[in-house]
Please model this.
Amino acid sequence: MTKQEEIMQGVKPILKELRNEAELLGRVNINPHLDKLLAYLHSQGVVIKIDRELPDDLMEGQASFDKQTYTVMLKQSGYEAVEPLRLKV
Model:
């Protein structure tokens, strides 16, 4: 099973719970379900890709490269800056 299929399988019960609540009550408070969904996705390693400058500590020991050249090299090798989907509370 691919990671995408695993995540889909994990999301299904949360969505079913949301649907059941809507059917029973005729309305639904979506916030608790969103919290569960974000917590689940976070537990599966889902992250947000961000576009930002390289941290200065990544340049340590790379004196022969300027920051722009090093950035290009890292991106070509697959480096991406990410942040967690869910902030630690």
In short: The first strand starts at residue 47 and ends at 50. The chain has three helices and two strands.
